[in-house]
Every structure is written in C-alpha cells, then in structure tokens.
User: Fold this.
Amino acid sequence: MEVKVARQYGFCFGVRRAIQIADELSAPLTTYGPLVHNPYEVSRLEGKGVKSSLDIQEIKTPNILVRAHGITPSVMEELKLKGKVIDGTCPLVKKVHGIAQMLDKNGYKILIFGQKSHPETIGTQGYIGNRADVIHNTQEAENFSGDYDKIALISQTTEIIGEFNEVVAILLKKYPHLRVIDTICEPTKENQNAAVELAKESDLVVVVGGKNSSNTRKLMLNCEKITRAVHIESPEELDKLDFSGVKILGLTSGASTPDWLFDKVVIKAKELAK
Amino acid sequence: MEVKVARQYGFCFGVRRAIQIADELSAPLTTYGPLVHNPYEVSRLEGKGVKSSLDIQEIKTPNILVRAHGITPSVMEELKLKGKVIDGTCPLVKKVHGIAQMLDKNGYKILIFGQKSHPETIGTQGYIGNRADVIHNTQEAENFSGDYDKIALISQTTEIIGEFNEVVAILLKKYPHLRVIDTICEPTKENQNAAVELAKESDLVVVVGGKNSSNTRKLMLNCEKITRAVHIESPEELDKLDFSGVKILGLTSGASTPDWLFDKVVIKAKELAK
Assistant:
C-alpha cells in the first residue's frame, strides 16, 4: 500500500493566524467560542491556559480573542465591555462583511449560501441587520420566492463551489438580474481541488478533522463522489479501518485540523503500509 | 404630452470625479484619450484648454490626466516619463483591477464579459498580462472551450446585468466550478434600472448621449425592449422626432452625458410638450 498526501490540506491561513495569536498571547485568555472545530487542538490550547466560552457573562480573563469565523458588531461591543478584545477574524471573512454591507446599503435583497447556524453566517448577518435569507441547498433555492428588483447572492467562505453554482443556476431562472458574488475563499477551494485530485488516484481517502468541522465534512463529501472515503478524528481510528484492496491510500485534512495531528496520522499510516 | 425624467441618469460618480479633476487643474492639461465619450463635453473641456491624446509622444503639457476607464500599468509608466500624471481612474474600476490580479495570482483562467477594444477592458488586461479572454455575447460564450480547473468570470463595469447572467448560465453548463464575480458597477445598474422603469411608463424614451458611448447604447437597448426609444446627442435632434401618439415622453442619459447638456434637452422637450 502506498500512502499519498494531498498537495494542499489543513489549516487555512485565517485559522493559522488566529491560533498563532492565541499561542503568542500570554494566558489567561478566552476565545469567544472554540477557536477551531477540532477537539484535539482545542484541548492543546486549553493546556496552555486558553479557555473558550460563548457565554459573555462567563468570561473572566482580561484578554478575549475573536476567532477566524468573525462575530456580529453587537457581540463585539459586548465583548469590549468585558475586556481587551483581539480580533482574530479572518481577513477574507472581513471582506465578505464589507461586500454584504455594500450590497445592503445599495438596496439589495441578500441571499447567503451557507448554514444559518454557522458562526460565520451569524457574524455576516450582524453587519446587515439580519436582513439576508440563508439558503443551504438547491431545494431551498427552488422554494425561495419574492419580488426583488435588486437581489444578490454571496456565500459562506467555506462552501463547495459546485453546490454554490447549482444554486446560482436555479436562482438565475427566477432572477435574471441576480448579482452573483462568489465569496468562497481560495484556501477552501484549494483544499477541495487537491482532495478531488487525490481521490481520483486513491482507492481510499482518509480525511482527518473534527467531527464537528463543517469544512472537513465537505472535503469528505467531495471525495466520496469519486472513491471510498472515511472521516477520522485521530490516528488511533486508522486501526479500525479496512485496507483490503487498497493500493493507494490518500490522506488529507480539513481547514480546522492542525498539522501536528495530521502528521501523526501520516506517520501511523506509513507504518501500517509497510 | 407629459415629460418624465428618469429617477437616475447621467454621469456616474467615476466620470464626475475625473471631470472635476480636469476642471480644477489649471490648463494646459492633456487627458490620455477623450475624458468622456461625449463630443459636447469634450468640446467644453477643449475650450478650457484641456486637450486629449492617445499618442503619448504627442503629449506636450506638464499635466496628464488618466480618465475614469483606467489604463494599463505599462501605459502608466510611459505617461510618467512624459509629465506629472494625475490618476482619474474610477475607484470601482481599480477594484476590478485588484480582483483580476487576485484571480490571476491564484491561477484562474479569467474571462471578462465586455468589449475587447474598450479602454477599461484593455486597462484591466494590462494588470494580468493580457491573459484573460474577452467574451462579448452569448454566442462567444457558447463557442468558448478549453480545459480549466480554475476559471472565473468578471465583467466590464458598464455591462448589462441580464446579458452578463445569460453568459453565466451558458458557462456554468461547461464549467460547474466557474467562479462568478459580478463586477458591473452600481451606478451603471442604477441608470439601467431607472431607464427600464421609465420605459415601462413611457410611449417614447429619448436617451441622450454620445453616439460613441457604449453605456448610452446599452441604456437604449434596455429601453427598446419595452417601448419606442431613440438615441440623440443634442437638443436640436428633438426637432426631427415624431411625437405623434406620445402621451408620456421619457428622458434619460448615459453615464458619459453631462447634466448641462441633458438639462437643455429637458427644457426643449418641455417647450415642445406645451
């Protein structure tokens, strides 16, 4: 069995940046919500004195770090009353806030392709008075209606381009004047493209990432369309996998998976492959 | 006959800004190409000592103004060797340069919806080593082919949103992973929307603007789909029009048409309507 690693995987630069800030700031520090959707990385940070809380009243540390997903302006104000706020919002997410505000100011009905309950979408909504509708799949796009002279579609930065464009195609039939601004970020696209390339040459792809990580699940979905794929959180889970018939084993990881964890999976996989 | 004026018409803020710069700068001044595609405004500026030239070697004035359409970086360098360059490039066009560069840097094949020979598109191409393909209509979109993992579509800022989206729909069939970034500017859309609203309630729409103005021609095309429409350059041309059966006369003007000229048309139309 040969082990192949995707040409691009793991932390996007926004997450890397937020974690670097957490590592460099002297604890005690609280992050507003878990810094990444990965239990191992969160636990590593906890070991260094980095707490996580979504309950503002519970925050007792002088330093508060906003994670890469971003927050609403009103949560930002509340946090500022509690301590010194360090903004770890991904610059690419900040760009989306700016685009949403520009569209809103210019009278557009805004549709966001994404998940209503995802922190990034909640944050973006906060910049436009929650006036956007959130569409999560083609069915919701089919069901969407209303008479809008000005209507625009943007995306959560971590969505899948193919699915975004399926929604575009449906909406264009109803709104030929739809303004489409594809705000899916480059690092997300790069990880997805690399995963697809890897899947094409692998008999099995192992995707490493938190079970609560939406972008890891999406990598998994992309791979599953092409070959056999499994989603694991830790190196130990490799032991339970069935490698029969696997000549090439592909390995990749989501944007919230730390390299130190992925590297352990690679080492263990190479041992198993011997 | 009642005369109605569009709720939005005329100079976009980018053109207004470039003309204001020309008016405020002390002559002698040369603009690199006519500042607007309108012979009357160009002639007014000439009266103030503002020359226009596209032949860099011919430029003899100490001050050189770059018009709203923008230029390539290499033309900018050449101009700088000739005199003091004042950059009148529209900030919204500059944004498109930035988006094109970002896409190019990230390995995208870029398609520009626009006109190959339009100064704005020539300028944008200059920022990406002329690597973009320019698509001007649905037929060219149908004919476009090639195998691209990363492909993106942007637009000249002055295009028609409905036509842009027809091209989007065609390209999405070939490239489900197409990245669509609608860069048509708000002022263009506002003029177009207002013209369409006006056309819906008018028996005849008179569109005022230079015969060489691409955005004026597009306003005209939008109106023609709905009602009778004519394109004139000067108030005198009103005399030649047939107003029989016209109960409501709509008036609008392109983004390169100065208000002083449009106002003359409005006054004359109101006299004729008495």
